[in-house]
Amino acid sequence: MTRPNLVFPVIATTWCLLLLQAGSSSPPPQTAPAPALPPSNPCIARERDALLDLKAGLQDPSNYLASWQGDNCCDEWEGVVCSKRNGHVATLTLEYAGIGGKISPSLLALRHLKSMSLAGNDFGGEPIPELFGELKSMRHLTLGDANFSGLVPPHLGNLSRLIDLDLTSYKGPGLYSTNLAWLSRLANLQHLYLGGVNLSTAFDWAHSLNMLPSLQHLSLRNCGLRNAIPPPLHMNLTSLEVIDLSGNPFHSPVAVEKLFWPFWDFPRLETIYLESCGLQGILPEYMGNSTSLVNLGLNFNDLTGLPTTFKRLSNLKFLYLAQNNISGDIEKLLDKLPDNGLYVLELYGNNLEGSLPAQKGRLGSLYNLRISDNKISGDIPLWIGELTNLTSLELDSNNFHGVITQFHLANLASLKILGLSHNTLAIVADHNWVPPFKLMIAGLKSCGLGPKFPGWLRSQDTITMMDISNTSIADSIPDWFWTTFSNTRYFVLSGNQISGVLPAMMNEKMVAEVMDFSNNLLEGQLQKVPENLTYLDLSKNNLSGPLPLDFGAPFLESLILFENSLSGKIPQSFCQLKYLEFVDLSANLLQGPFPNCLNISQAGNTSRADLLGVHQNIIMLNLNDNNLSGMFPLFLQKCQNLIFLDLAFNRFSGSLPAWIDELSALALFTVTIKYVHR
Ligand SMILES: *[C@@H]1O[C@H](CO)[C@@H](O)[C@H](O)[C@H]1NC(C)=O
Ligand SMILES: *[C@@H]1O[C@H](CO)[C@@H](O)[C@H](O)[C@H]1NC(C)=O
Ligand SMILES: *[C@@H]1O[C@H](CO)[C@@H](O)[C@H](O)[C@H]1NC(C)=O
Ligand SMILES: *[C@@H]1O[C@H](CO)[C@@H](O)[C@H](O)[C@H]1NC(C)=O
Ligand SMILES: *[C@@H]1O[C@H](CO)[C@@H](O)[C@H](O)[C@H]1NC(C)=O
Ligand SMILES: *[C@@H]1O[C@H](CO)[C@@H](O)[C@H](O)[C@H]1NC(C)=O
Ligand SMILES: *[C@@H]1O[C@H](CO)[C@@H](O)[C@H](O)[C@H]1NC(C)=O
Ligand SMILES: *[C@@H]1O[C@H](CO)[C@@H](O)[C@H](O)[C@H]1NC(C)=O
Ligand SMILES: *[C@@H]1O[C@H](CO)[C@@H](O)[C@H](O)[C@H]1NC(C)=O
Ligand SMILES: *[C@@H]1O[C@H](CO)[C@@H](O)[C@H](O)[C@H]1NC(C)=O
Ligand SMILES: *[C@@H]1O[C@H](CO)[C@@H](O)[C@H](O)[C@H]1NC(C)=O
Ligand SMILES: *[C@@H]1O[C@H](CO)[C@@H](O)[C@H](O)[C@H]1NC(C)=O
């Protein structure tokens, strides 16, 4: 539910999030499609006409409603299901269909409509039609992420048979409600999803929800709620199983024991998410009463500890306490956990000290152990290897030291994420060891892996992100490297003594997007780089020869090649790298004029539009210490984002263009222009 806490450079963060973030709110309710009608009763004409009116008002660019023609609306029309019993249209499911436009009032002719979903369409920020409140038979109404906006019509409170209501609203300008009194009439409501609906002025929210005795699942994620649930404590919500109030500011910061959270008394409550709620302090003792809890999500708060009663949570399986302010000895904290065996323990980003316990104790069933970014010290105990279901082991950025051997890892067949960066750990394994696992992410920065290139990595051809920088490898890059890691998107190998040459096949076979091989002993020529590469850092190696005539990577944003022995001209193809932001070619042997990027437009067309397309994004251009000559690079006039420009120690000639002042005015605060004529 949260991102893994491997320490990778910022550049990977978003990517990493996409890869691993799993939503922590429950899925919206699903309605099972009813079996099709016998053909004898194809469709009630009045209802078919109503559907045709509806279609006429809708925009349907992808022709999702193409099947809406002919008489047999019950059997043949996409998304329409009729009641087997009475032949009336009972269900209308038009989800993620690219539909928008107007909803015709004829919809009201569908008097037996029990279930309607318009989720994931785009109604262009229009309000939810009030007329939905007149569809009296409605049980399941799903309007999530459909780009409705404005006031949630209180008319929905007339749908007294409603069981599920999903108004999740993270798209577009968004929905709001100033009070939830209308909800209190929905006595049958079981599932309510209002994530993203602005409720910042709906101070009555808790009171109104308390009128819903059937409520089982509640999401009020990111609703801007400010006031917590007030006493008195008698609560009607005895059916509540899942509550998600994450991302609400409340009166932050909130001393958690002062917040009155009657949840802990709900007899069936299994899941509570209160992430990013500004909660402070120690969780209250009375939460130990909440023995039905399975999932407790409290990441991103300011909590400082667990109550002594925590042990009573004998059903707890998933505990998320990352990015809080819990200090003290980790062993003492682990002693407070219930005995039943957690599946997930997230404690990264706290201030825990001490060392891991000598016995695995109650941690034996863990799938995810995420304790990065603390101050935990000591060895990695051998019992880690007994956690046979582990998929994610993240110990980065602590004070662990010592050696991890293949015996620690020999039974971890399910391991996908291994994060050991920023400790003082060495990994020692036989060169021919084939681990039982296939990693997706290996964060091993600053571990001792060398001096030989670790042979066990050869089997890890599933890795998408790998950081083995600063790992004391002093070896040539093995032949298998380029094939094993041809599916790796993110490589960091910097700060080793890795030697060898870059192969010619990188362009066709590798999917890499980020390659940082800086500060090694690579030599030979730079060939075409992987097609989708955006970040290339080969600085501080010993590459020689000319730059490739064609880089082969049109999306390149960073090209960092300083301190090599590259020679020859900067090729004209440089001008085609139109997403470039950071360019550092300093301290090489490049010569000749800078290519004239102003003139590279298609077919010699130098219209103004073409000129503007070239290199507008450049933020840094460092050409210091080469042998470049010719005029000042004129294309820079178009680079309004330029912050750093260094042309010193070259043989450029001529006068500085007058517009250079203009350029420095446009740039941010630290314009550095050096133009030294040698
Ligand atoms: C939602 O509608 C608004 C208003 O028409 C539009 O500007 C916006 O692009 C839409 N947003 C999404 C995410 O579809
Ligand atoms: C439905 O609700 C609205 C607003 O809550 C109310 O004004 C209206 O009278 C109700 N309509 C019916 C038919 O009950
Ligand atoms: C929610 O509504 C309040 C009051 O109308 C407004 O001040 C606030 O900016 C809104 N919040 C968001 C996230 O739109
Ligand atoms: C409990 O719900 C009933 C109706 O469902 C309501 O009358 C009563 O006021 C509620 N109790 C509290 C404490 O809100
Ligand atoms: C909850 O647990 C506490 C002890 O931690 C106990 O005194 C109390 O009676 C229980 N019930 C409630 C409603 O707090
Ligand atoms: C964390 O807790 C310590 C006391 O243990 C306190 O001094 C510090 O201010 C807290 N930090 C934050 C960010 O709340
Ligand atoms: C690992 O998971 C399996 C089910 O997936 C379970 O049967 C087994 O007991 C688990 N092992 C441990 C050590 O919890
Ligand atoms: C490299 O690793 C060593 C040993 O772990 C560490 O002391 C040093 O700070 C690391 N250097 C960098 C640049 O991370
Ligand atoms: C580059 O990215 C595109 C779009 O994501 C993809 O279709 C293509 O296969 C990728 N090329 C390589 C070599 O990975
Ligand atoms: C760099 O490569 C050149 C040959 O291209 C070689 O003569 C030189 O010794 C290398 N320098 C280092 C530090 O390896
Ligand atoms: C573009 O190139 C042509 C010749 O190829 C030259 O005459 C012209 O001056 C160049 N334009 C600019 C803006 O550099
Ligand atoms: C240059 O491009 C413009 C539009 O981008 C076009 O109208 C014009 O015909 C082109 N000229 C040449 C010589 O290709």
From TrEMBL:
Annotated keywords: Cell membrane, Glycoprotein, Leucine-rich repeat, Membrane, Receptor, Repeat, Signal, Transmembrane, Transmembrane helix
Major location category of this protein: membrane
Protein name: Os07g0466500 protein
Subcellular location as annotated: Cell membrane
Domain Leucine-rich repeat-containing N-terminal plant-type: 46-83
Gene3D superfamilies associated with the record: Ribonuclease Inhibitor
Protein topology in the membrane: Single-pass type I membrane protein
Family: Belongs to the RLP family.
InterPro entries listed in its UniProt record: Leu-rich_rpt (IPR001611), LRR_dom_sf (IPR032675), LRR_N_plant-typ (IPR013210), RLP23-like (IPR046956)
Highest taxon of source: Eukaryota
Any matching Pfam family: LRR_8
Any single Gene Ontology cellular-component annotation: plasma membrane
Signal peptide: 1-25
